[in-house]
Amino acid sequence: MMSFNQQRVRKLAALSVTVCVATIHAYAQANRITSPVETAKRFTLAGHIPPRARAEFDQGRVSPSLVLTHITVALAPSAQQQADLTNLLAAQQNPSTPDYHHWLTPEQYAARFGAGEGDLSQIKSWLETEGLSVTGIARGRNWISADGTAAQVERAFQTEIHEYVVDGETHFANASEPSLPAAFSGVISGIRGLNDFRMKPAARSLREVPQYTAGRNVHYMAPNDFATIYDINPLYGAGVDGTGQKLVVAGQTQVNLSDIETFRSAYGLAPNDPQLVQVPNSKNPGISSADLPEADLDLEWSGAVARNATIIFVYSSDVMSSIQYAIDQNLAPVITSSYGLCEQETGRADAATFESWARQGNTQGITWVNASGDAGGADCDDSTNPGLAVDVPAAIPEVTGVGGTEFNEGSGQYWSATNGNGQGSALSYIPETSWNDSAQDGGPSASGGGASTFFSRPSWQTGPGVPSDNARHVPDVALAASADHDGYLVYTGGQQEIFGGTSAPTPSFAGLVALLNQYLVSSGTQSSAGVGNLNPQLYSLAQSASSAFHDISTGNNIVTVSCPPRSQNCAASPVGYTAGIGYDQVTGLGSVDADLFLSAYTGKTITSVRPVTSMTLVASPTSIAVNGTLNLTASVSSSDGTTPTGTIAFTEGTVSLGSAVLSGSGGTATATLAVSGAQLSQGSALITAEYNGQSNTTATVTVTVSAVTTSAKPSITALANGASFKPVYAPGMVLTVFGSQLAGTTDTASTVPLPKTMDSVAATVNGVAAPIYYVSAGQLNIQIPYETAANSTAVLNINNNGQTASQSFTVAAAAPGIFIDQNGAPVPNGSASPGQEVVLYITGAGALSPAVATGAAPAAGTPLANLPVPTQMVSMTVGGVPVLPQFVGVPSGLVGVVQINYTVPTGIATGPQPVVVTVGGVQSAPATLTVTN
Fold first, then answer.
1. Which of 206, 279, 496, 518 could tie 325 with a disulfide, CB 3.0–4.6 Å?
2. What is the extent of the structural domain holding 431?
3. Number of separate domains in the chain
């Protein structure tokens, strides 16, 4: 007998089914094929001749018996359906709407946006009448697939199938545009499968057997390295490891599971074989030597990040058919693909079809992640199309395009000398620059990116650095991609290799999306996995939670595509883009800090503060007068090798003295706070530093505070750039302060890092200690902290033995000033002859890469290539003639000063000539160089 509660549950379930069915029928689509299907009355589908099927490669018609499989007829939504779909996609990403993250099933998609049942029936009947065998109808009712011989295909679509030999490979393709019965016009939008040209994998291999952390300062990435560098370990510690999640890797080859099993065993990952799914009714591709490395890379590294997720490898003879099937069957909320073609070689028809799949996938909660390409700004990497180009599918607005970065350690220690757990040796996040190894690799080898000529800019693609044109720009994000420095460890074909290219960060980032999906479900934020199109949230978070991203502002993806021998119309000129602050067409929004990214996305702190093994606190000086100032410096080291982040709170007893933000590298970070004697108890004062509110992570120091020592009150009369003496200012710059009673003595710093107090004089900018070069009664030279925000108003405070003065000033991103002598000539070379290489120095260049701590200089012995350089473009002119500097960088031993080596242009007139340096579009005041014979 059924209980009352059981009956109630059954009635509620029946009611739910009724409501669901009613909803589906409410969207039942009208049939749009209203006229008779007549073979003689036809319309042509434009844009269906493959760009690579050119006349010079044509070998004539194929055998009539050649079988073409998985020919897909794409069905277009009506204008009303298209508008409804656009509105739904926007609503699903808008938290204020009822549709936010409410995903459709393929059947719900079909009922709302698919073709009418009658239209499907007529098209299917026509295909069969033409002799083709219908092999599948999409669950979303937006395509029909069929097989047939070349003769049947030619008759059905009124085209010829020819053989083409391109780059030594034999292909087939339609030689003319296909046509269809006029009754289908507006209902059928495209046909795929009339050719066998395929997308290209983006993997780059460095074929050598590695030792993980090797000699010669060479390193390779194991999964634990990636987890350390991109801050995934705290997520794993909180149980966010992909459990319960699914992720599809799309491919076009079979694989050997033994490679994936060996990879996981070698790097300490638990066994977790991927599920292998061949697309039904598709040609079995077998093991493809050209595609196997890509498949192994994608499977191993998506699983290396989402370590406990179910990885589903969907394969066929065409990677795009694999993606099509994964979306149609709604196999997983994340799909990753590392294949692509430039837009010119893809064609608009195929690109539009791929976008329709992506839009359907987004409505079902699917995030499609795709590599942005490896040929820099010239994505075609083809002498036929040597100019600017971007990659499809990455350029599709509903797809997240992943570009490439390269580690830029400089003089920092970011790797252990030995391998640890899981063969990992990375100690912390490593500064990054743009990936461009074209010079080393002998051809285009750089992060794909640029402006689409197919897709317009979506409304969500906004923010600092995003071009103001109407083009969709790629990539969206980027992660490490250099096989040369430092490549990803992969097992493929039974052996260990090193890989890079945008193929490597793409499955890795897809793994991060799977971790996000897990947390959203496990935390109760949403009932089912999936975030759909991730891009709107990426661009929003980049502005509201910038700390979740590592902004990559140096380097470029400029490449040159070589012209073939005896070419007539090929111009082998470099093309590409330069990285900059904010978004750029090389690295997009930058790389991500996984822990901070998930926390920012969900609005919840997912993990606790990093474990800490040691913390020290030092006061300088340890004895001051009540009207004096001291600096408190806390140093924190992490037990798991990651560099601590967050804040240090300083207190004396129950009295708060303030807080400071940690910064550092290599597992150790410091925070410094300037404190006045007036804030402390006279006599012996016990000061405590506490890390992010963890009462068990503290350190103390005792200082002595004596009675007031009187001195005259300082006065500030002017501020100036320490080189040009103009009233322009930037972070990291030498700042000259003029006034009276600024110090009681005259003194100059004798060591680097610069002191933060000198002869009872201290300075701060917005409360951050400003290191001191020089003090005297009438002048101070200090460094504006790099922490000072650009394009803002800052407050300088001078404390001379307890007496203070302050003044506000405006800080720009760059304020270049050339160091000059009393005659206005650049130092040390005030005169030079044409063709002579000389040197000058500037300050006010702004942010550097790799970053240098305020008051510090690059270490002695730092290789020239690793010296810090300004993140903004540096150019110069001599006598109005543009000059390309031979070297721009911060030399060892100098603080806040950039050295520029340049050659005096030949042909320039003798006598005084103006020298102007421009940084980030901001010109310096001219210095006067005397040009001699």
1. 279
2. 200-534+575-589
3. 4
